[in-house]
Design goal:
single chain; 194 residues; 4-stranded mixed beta sheet
Length: 194
Amino acid sequence: MSSRIIRSGDGLKKVHVTTGSMGGSTGDAIPSNHMMNVEKQAFEQGYKEGERIGKQMGERMMETAIKRYERSIGEMANIQRILVDAMEVETVRLSLEIAKKIIQREAAIDPDLVAALVAVAMKRLHGHHGTEVRVSNHDFARVCEAMRVANSSIPVKEDPSLERGDFILDSVQTHLDGRISSQVEAVGRAILDE
């Protein structure tokens, strides 16, 4: 049993309140059971509300984590695309450099290769006026000999700016660049769509 002091406009009154847990009368037990039911309902309601709020918070945290995860995957996929594109370009450039070295080596091994290439190019310019052939110092003698054998009156000139295997055909109508580096670059542009 407990007592409380209640203040009112007339003065102070002391009231005794019984909780009804031990040995109280049956009249005291009913309000006590009611109080326990109210407490139980309040607890269950509070528990359910806490559970609902916790679930909402957990779902929000999960959504945030999933969005971060999806963003990270997207960034990684983008980086992979960039790296693959860069590797493709570098692989093509490396392949072209290797091809250039192989062709230059072939031109050094087979001195008649340039003369044969010039002859093929001359057929493309057949009928053009004012045609002139420029070749490197290394290939000059071979190309002059090939032109003499072909009974061609087209002049052949040495061009120190050209490397072994290179040639340039000029005419009034056209310019044909037969430099190895120019041909390899043209192939590279075609492959890389530049």
